[in-house]
Amino acid sequence: MLVPRVGSQRWGGTPVRLHGDAPKRGTATRRSGARRYAEASRVAGGPFWSHAGHVTGTWERLRPVLARLRDDPAVPLRTWPDLDHGNGGHPPFSIWLAAWAVDAAARLHQEFGPDVDLRVGFLHYPLAGPADLGPDHLRPAEAPRTVCPSWIVAAPSEPVAVASGHDLRSVLVMRNDGSETAHLRTNGTVTATIVDPVTRRTVGGFAGMQVLPMVIVELPPGGTSRVPLLVGTASLDPRLGFAVPPGQWAFTAELDLSPGGPCQLPPHPLTILP
């Protein structure tokens, strides 16, 4: 992960002439330092040295905890502060966990409280309210209203079943029953969105980072192509919890076709397991 850093500032003094003497350095520096100290203390709500000590102490306790989570083969972390350089920044430290990693989030919250800003899947931890959703750029895009043309047939290569809170990589088999070549624009995969099979309301999807290359899949007339399919089960509805719960659901996806433009894949059955 690339972590933005705050650029260092040089506290340099301006030469100050006093009573006609030769220029003397340091007076402006000391005054500038005093002003900075006073401002930092005001923001911190107390002596700056005390706040800085708290930051350092918190990071020294948090860093080994995050290192263990980073090295966990189950991969509970999505993003986290840089553990190899610097002091991790300033609290609250932003930590993003997988939708299934609620227990890890609970432990972090219990030990570090307001010094960590936690997100589990799409939602903040702990939940602050019914509208406590993640940033717009992390949510599944609203599916377009246009249904994909009937001459594009797409279905998973096998029944799709995935554990609640986890992600699944499968294959979408696409067939062109039309008379002209079509092209599917992707980032190398088709990302599914989970919907309620009755109301068609979007309830979840994949919460994570993806690389964004332009990968174009050619669909010749009468031809079949296999496209990677990514299904995530992070919940967008706080009433469901941090992960879409076990049960019978459905998934759809947005396909960017040429000719035709963006269109919605018809819903397909999805089983979410305990």
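the 2nd protein, sequnce then structure:
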Amino acid sequence: MTVTGSSAGVGAGAGPDPEDGTTRDNRLTLPRATHLLSFFRARAETMVTWRERDRVPEGDTVWLAGRRMHQALAGRTLTRTDFRVPQLATVDLTGQPVVEVLSRGKHLLTRIGADWSLHTHFRMDGSWHLYRRGDRWRGGPKWQVRVVLETREWQAVGYRLPVVELLARDREVDAVGHLGPDLLGSDWDPVEARRRLLADPGRELGQALLDQRNLAGIGNLYKAEVCFLTGLTPWTPVGDLPDVAEVVDRSKRLLEANRDDPAQVTTGDRRRGRQHWVFERSGKPCLRCGTRVASAEQGDPPYQRLTYWCPRCQKGPAPQPTHSG
């Protein structure tokens, strides 16, 4: 393997991550585009772009991505690698075995050989695609490809990945060490998750759930749905929660229920338009009480998120709704 540059961890500053709550100096920001995170041969009717949903993939989506990539690549030797980012342009991992692929919150770690970890993050538009050797790539124009990992059977193609780093294995903590307990991780610690949430009792529940330093894996969809099922608005201070353990437990159960299913159903009803209680249902009748679902921005610019709630089913403070339909 050949690595050039001052260190194995590479990238250019990408500014603060609105959910990780950190500013890291070794991230590489790249152009955005639109496409679904797809693996193997997903059916056409499930193809929805991340930009259409205007959200970062949730932790269960990244977990599923990691599992499918692990199934395809782990235990196999790389026959070709192609890093199409400036800082890694001369890196060649050909001949190295893929040890494992795993998720950590919304981050993906591909461990290669004895020493290296490829760290990627999807943000809004990134995706990994898996193709059989000889299949036509369908993830977008070739100029949007950032990484290619190839074995005798599979080609893993990373499109529009805004974070691409090659780290020494013992430096993975630089990429994911700031994260809170991983809702889908083998080392899940609910006690620590509750402690981190309660460390700032005045913080709004929705904002606290999105902060990956508290518990890793929740995005805007599960934030809205957890708050609805808890019966409190996303603007409720964490210190006013009657039972923080219930919020933590419900968050884990929702992600676990959907980690094998890209549909991300929270209501138990898979029919179109009825998969979620309030998420992306602004102006539509609440599925429980019939009141029109409200929505408004939550968070400080430029990281505010469109947030959904039912004014009747959810108690607590809330702003004047600003969006409908």
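The chain has two domains: 44-176, 190-309. The helical segments are 50-53, 59-73, 173-176, 190-198, 205-210, 220-230, 244-258.
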